[in-house]
Design goal:
alpha/beta, eight-stranded mixed sheet, about 40% helix
Length: about 900
């Protein structure tokens, strides 16, 4: 007699190319279970590590979890779900018009187990096992993991009778009983009865949820699992079809490469003639067998990136990781790191391997280096859409659609590749209630997490980073953090978070600490003072400029002397105005450039490339001569730039030091030609950093920064720290790196330093500190409570809510620039690929609303037509550029 569960479809389309328009639900369930069987091979690092954390045998874990995966889609037995397609076959169950599909099938499956199936199974005669049927009481948290296979934990306490007919419950019950027979015939249930296992499962559940997501995506790929609509014995289907096809599906993942042993620094970096002291530390520092945290603080040019990659390779070679993810503050810095890593990452692995390197951020398709190195997977067969029941416009993506979207989306795929490079945002999503966060956490699990420019993040992101360090340590991951300068309190917080994840006591740190400094924990010697190479030991003079007229006069002097100049302004508005003022003052437009964040992507790429050409490591004296760059903070992080003269708006001390790192950064002769001989010294004289700042007098009032620096206070609201920065720098008249770095940092950020702030500035300072506290409180509210395990109460899981990785004063809007040609809107960028993406600029919401009001009605109609034709543009705004309307130019950027 044909089993009742063969009357239910699990996946459907119009046709799979072989005459089958649907896939029976039991087969899809076994497809996903078979992928899990392949992913959790007991001899593989993933299964071994998960089993170790659970204190069970790998084989035991594999068997139990694969059984649970077979039950992941119990919710599809719901008549409400089955009624979504009534055109497939008369052999399938008939729809019930009174049952609306208003809740997702993942939640329906978990609630069916809670409300009905567990009780009915307990009513069955107990098995001959010593555990009897008691093991069923302990299965719920495991099923909560697998039913959350669409990237979010399932809902609970839904009234299943609104979605399931009695026949549906009977079919689901029969399938569960047959699955028990198929997978658990000789299973040892005794470990499942251990109450301590439930507690150990909570931190591990996040990775197992990632396995479930991945198994469902791969098990839904119709390229491998062809539809089967004819009843077939489950044992036969499992052995002859599911297991074999799952192996093919899993083989589409990036192959795990064999790590090579670390040999010498010359092997990784042939261009290094003599290792820096920090790089020598990275080569020689003893490693432990536990997950480890390194914090490397050193001056710009000390070789921090190379030192970090050496440590990462050594950790991998010791078996503590299989790969690496490098997190950076911006897309531009991620692009630059991706290029740098392209010549190195293969050396982490044994010859003959083909390790994967993926770039991960929101605009990664627009990186030329990425496009030249990666070919993304294409989908050859698609599922038909089925309505989610909320309204006719909403579409619930099928698992195959998710699978193929993932294969083409490196932001998720990057964490499953051997080596990923991207923004910090991509890994912070692993600790936020964002769909598929569990897959990110899983992908990060066997990787060294390397975070650059740690000082560059606000209180909100710092708090999220703390949570990420805790989570990564808990799942056995090691972390390397890089910074030119780091306040002592921040270093202590990072160490505390990592040790919390390890479940260990927090070690004491020296206060005040040395600089440069390497922090390594857990280790015998936690803190080590590091020397730095002679070439980057230097004294920088400080000279204050009181007005914009003085700044322009200084720029003109430098240009006349043939020097290249950078003026870093704190706001886009100020940068645009200064650029125009210099043009009005008679500077040659061919030697003057503007670089800020409000350029269309195609123009920004051109400006970034030109900036690296004029001021980068390989720039010649002729290219650099008398060139002037007016820029915002886009040049202060990770871009390898070198200026003869640097002028900076007043900013917090760590950022001023960071900006000074772009002043005479490379070793050059007096004309500006690069000197690469070992031991060469820079011949351009003592560097001078010009600080555009009001005088930090003791009688400064609340309007100290106004009107000339009002924008600075808007960006950096802690007016007390700005006053302390100017005071500390100007009373010294110069600073020597690295000797003065720690004193300067603590002289602004330490608790004791606040006593020096003039009383009249304290109100503004307290408001800024209150804002940071609010940011941290918001992070506490948003971040997942990972200790609760993969369950709905772990966070604010909501389909409609998007939890941000960054807090901004004002929402930014993605705006695609368009031009009118022959009555149609065409992209501003004229390229063969990604022309609309390359035409996009991000604008503050108020600027967009102002620009939007200027769009005439006839163009609004064209915009609606364009969005109808180009579905990808539904999620961005369109701004037509009209002739004669000066709102955007390739030299000025957005000017609204």
């Amino acid at each position: 007699m044909t089993k009742l569960y063969y009357k239910y479809w699990g996946k459907a389309s119009s046709d799979d190319g072989q005459g089958n328009s649907y896939h029976l639900l039991p087969y899809h369930c076994l497809d996903v279970a078979a992928v899990g069987w392949q992913l959790l091979k007991p001899d593989m690092p993933l299964c071994k590590q998960l089993a170790k954390q659970l204190e069970v045998e790998p084989e035991w874990l594999r068997t139990l979890f694969v059984f649970c995966l077979a039950l992941h889609d119990l919710g599809k037995f719901a008549r409400a779900f089955q009624g979504l397609r009534q055109d497939l076959s008369a052999d399938l169950v008939k729809a019930n018009s009174r049952m609306s599909y208003s809740e997702r099938h993942d939640s329906l499956g978990f609630c069916l187990w809670q409300e009905t199936l567990q009780t009915k199974l307990l009513e069955q005669p107990p098995s001959n096992e010593p555990a009897g049927n008691e093991w069923l009481f302990h299965l719920e948290p495991w099923l909560e993991i697998v039913t959350g296979h669409h990237g979010m934990p399932p809902k609970t306490n839904l009234r299943t009778r609104n979605f399931f007919e009695v026949e549906d419950e009977q079919a689901a019950m029969a399938f569960v009983q047959d699955a028990i027979a198929l997978f658990l015939g000789d299973f040892d249930f005794q470990p499942l009865l251990d109450k301590a296992l439930k507690k150990r499962l909570k931190p591990v559940s996040w990775q197992l949820a990632g396995v479930a997501v991945l198994a469902d995506w791969l098990g839904s790929n119709q390229d491998h699992f062809k539809y089967c609509d004819k009843p077939k014995d489950l044992n036969v289907y499992w052995r002859e079809i599911a297991i074999k096809k799952a192996e093919d599906a899993v083989n589409t993942l990036p192959k795990a490469s064999d790590v090579a042993s670390f040999q010498t620094i010359e092997n990784l970096f042939p261009f290094i003639q003599q290792p820096t002291p920090l790089q020598k530390y990275a080569i020689n520092e003893p490693l432990t067998e536990l997950p480890q945290l390194f914090i490397l603080e050193d001056v710009t040019g000390a070789g921090k990136t190379e030192a970090a990659l050496i440590l990462a390779h050594r950790l991998m070679a010791q078996g503590l990781a299989d790969g690496l993810y490098i997190a950076l503050p911006t897309m531009a810095t991620a692009n630059a790191m991706y290029k740098r890593l392209g010549n190195v990452y293969r050396k982490f692995y044994q010859s003959g391997n083909e390790p994967s390197l993926i770039l991960a951020h929101g605009a990664r398709e627009l990186s030329q280096a990425f496009q030249e190195s990666v070919v993304l997977a294409k989908q050859s067969i698609t599922d038909g859409d089925y309505l989610n029941g909320k309204n006719e416009e909403d579409q619930e993506l099928s698992a195959t659609a998710y699978c193929n979207a993932w294969l083409a989306d490196s932001r998720k795929k990057a964490l499953l590749a051997d080596v990923g490079v991207g923004t910090l945002d991509q890994v912070l999503l692993a600790v936020l209630p964002a769909r598929h966060q569990s897959l990110r956490l899983l992908g990060l699990g066997r990787k060294v997490l390397l975070v650059d420019e740690v000082h560059a993040y606000d209180g909100y992101m710092q708090k999220l980073l703390d949570a990420l360090l805790e989570a990564h340590a808990r799942q056995g991951g090691s972390v390397i953090l890089l910074s030119a300068t780091l306040p002592q309190t921040m270093r202590e917080t990072l160490v505390n978070a990592f040790h919390k994840g390890l479940g260990q006591d927090v070690p004491g740190l020296n206060d005040p600490a040395h600089y440069p400094l390497a922090t390594h924990t857990p280790a015998v010697t936690i803190e080590q003072s590091i020397d730095t190479r002679e070439a980057v030991k230097r004294t920088v003079n400080i000279q204050r400029l009181d007005s914009e007229d003085e700044v322009i006069a200084q720029i003109r002097l430098a240009v006349a002397a043939g020097h290249c100049v950078c003026w870093i302004r704190n706001t886009v508005k100020a940068a645009r105005q200064s650029y125009q003022d210099l043009l009005d003052a008679g500077l040659d437009s061919n030697r003057l450039s503007l670089f800020h964040s409000r350029f269309a992507m195609i123009d920004r790429q051109e400006i970034e490339n030109r900036t690296l050409q004029y001021f980068g490591d390989d720039s010649s004296a002729e290219q650099r001569k008398s060139q002037v760059l007016i820029a915002t903070q886009v040049v202060e992080q990770s871009l390898d730039l070198d200026f003869d003269v640097m002028i900076t708006d007043l900013a917090p001390i760590d950022l001023v030091i960071q900006r000074a790192g772009r002043l005479m950064r490379h070793i050059r002769d007096a004309q500006g030609n690069r000197l690469r001989e070992y031991g060469a010294r820079d011949l351009r004289g003592t560097p001078t950093l010009y600080l555009f700042s009001p005088d930090p007098t003791e009688d400064a009032d609340a309007n100290w920064l106004k009107p000339d620096h009002a924008g600075t206070q808007a960006v950096y609201p802690h007016i007390g720290q700005l006053w302390l920065t100017a005071k500390r720098l100007l009373e010294r008249g110069q600073f020597t790196m690295p000797d003065d770095a720690r004193d300067l940092i603590e002289g602004v950020y330490s608790f004791d330093a606040e006593a020096d702030i003039p009383d009249v500035l304290l109100d503004g300072s307290m408001q800024a500190e209150s804002k940071v506290m609010v940011q941290k409180s918001m992070a506490d509210l948003n971040v997942l409570k990972l200790n609760k395990g993969y369950t709905r109460s772990s966070g604010d899981w909501d389909e409609e809510t998007r939890i941000p990785t960054r807090l901004t004063e004002e929402e930014t809007i993605s705006v695609a620039l368009a031009i009118v040609e022959n009555g149609q809107l065409k992209p501003y960028a004229k390229t063969e690929r990604y022309e609309w993406a390359l035409s996009t600029v991000k604008l503050p919401e108020h600027q967009w609303k102002k620009a939007q009001q200027q769009i005439p009605d006839n163009l609004k109609a064209l915009i609606e037509t364009l969005k109808t034709e180009q579905k990808a543009l539904c999620w961005v705004e369109i701004l037509p550029l009209k002739e004669g309307q000066v709102i955007y130019s390739s030299r000025h950027g957005f000017m609204g």
